[in-house]
Amino acid sequence: MPDFDRLYRAVRRKGVTVELLWQEYRPEHPDAGYGYSRFCDLYRGWRGSSTWRCARNTGRERSSSPTGLG
Fold first, then answer.
1. How far apart are CA 20 and CA 12, in angstroms?
2. What is the pTM of this model?
């Protein structure tokens, strides 16, 4: 389980995001580490917030086609 106390303190610093912290966490736990969405769910549960959301990098989901079809 990630150290959410440490993550919470870190994410409050300028330029630090949950995604960045997850990218640091993931290589340290290659076999048992959580994927990004589960990591966000656990962090949200730890914070007790149902309104907080992890940022989505929509650039990864976008199509390379200018029409969006391919």
1. 12
2. 0.63
